[in-house]
Amino acid sequence: MNTPFDEEPHRRPGLLAGLRASFLTGIVVIAPVWLTIWLIWSVVGWIDSAVLPLVPQRFQPEEYVGINLRGVGVIIFLFFTIIVGWIAKGILGRSLIHFAESVVDRMPVVRSVYSGIKQISETVFAQTERSFEKACLIQYPRRGIWAIGFVSTTARGEVSTRAETSGELLSVFVPTTPNPTSGFLLFFPAEDVILLDMSIEDAAKLVISAGLVYPNDKDPTQPPE
Fold this sequence. Notes:
Strand content: 5-15%
Order of helices and strands: HHHHHEEHEEEH
Low-confidence stretches: none
Number of helices: 7
Shape: flat
Distance between the termini: 7 Å
Structural class: alpha+beta
Number of strands: 5
Helix content: 40-55%
């Protein structure tokens, strides 16, 4: 695997240059692993600190094993969430949710907070939501300048009927660099959208890295060499 810090093969590096290249290569290898482990460990600890205080003391794992086991709160949270979801899918659960939401709708401040959080939750976690279909190239912000985009779906409804185009209209999300979670929703005629063979993940890496990480150009369906 080549890294941006590897020395060119035709030039023999000095001792300091070789140590520097090795150190930077080590950072590239270690940093993602360490940050991933740290993030998971921190999230698990945060969930434990929020869930375990709600569990009666006699059911605390520390009472039986003598130590605080990290991750027990996550297991309890997952089990509780599955039960709530199972109940919510039933007739009784839907009736209770409808009644509770009708009560919340009468509270001015709480209503705004609840509706905003609910919309975010449905967008992020709802299983019925569709993910991006394909990565694509579009000419944006003007012809002759190309940008990476993600095709979300075919435009429908008023957007499709009122647009001055005779063909199919595609919804394209154009992300920003280096934060691909922000960007622009644009609607393009299908003939102006060039679908790419690279995966959504590879296209996202290309955007996040500001063009430094490219997929395998020999076979876009295979990982880089």
